[in-house]
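OP here, attaching both records as promised.
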Amino acid sequence: MGSYIENGSSLVDTYRLISTMYQIGQWWQENKISVADEHLATATCDYIIARLQFTVNKEKLPSKRALLFCVEGEGHYIGLKMLASLLEKYKWEVGNLGANLPLSYAINSIEKRRPEVVGISISQVHLLPSLKQYINEIESLTYSPTALVGGEVIATL
């Protein structure tokens, strides 16, 4: 892992890990690996992203704002962390609210911070009705941020 970072890998290179994390999730669903193995893979990916974030030049003032979170009940946050790192690389001010954010807190944060972009992550099919509620609430705001939705369940639609 240290050699991955020391050999000049960048944040953009890290996004190659997305397909690996999808494979890890698939193996977990098929009972080929344990939840402990899945958590270890997630922690390793998280560590790599955190280490590479130190390579981001944050000298210039951010030009745009983004607010990122997972819907309530969603615990898979690595994709959000990757997106946050990439946006920061391109001088965005990013608020990453992480996993499992209740709707009322999401809306309050959006109204308070007024980001240009709201990024929502969802990986579980049974949470799609919740996603619709989040989108409806965002669309009813007094201003119109762009909503981006990502995650494994979106990739399979």
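Record two, same layout:
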Amino acid sequence: MFAIYFLKPENRSAVDAMKDDDLIGRQSIITKDASSFDFAEPGLIVLVEGSSDAISLVDRRFGSLMEKLNKDRSDRLYALIKDEEKRADEGMGFLFG
């Protein structure tokens, strides 16, 4: 399960607070610059991948600081982020293979 959020720059400390949380911090948390994904407004894209309990906790504790993206947009961004990770892994394999 995953959820993707838009985080304004002034709320960036929320990412550190998420990583410090006992449950949320054990999930995969990836941040990307929103401008890399054609967002007009400056900020971060935050991908949280893990248990439904952890994502529910993110929504409750940090929902007022971040905008949860709708399913269509989240699915598109998730595919782009995973493709980017795959290409990076393949590049490292090529270098060290």
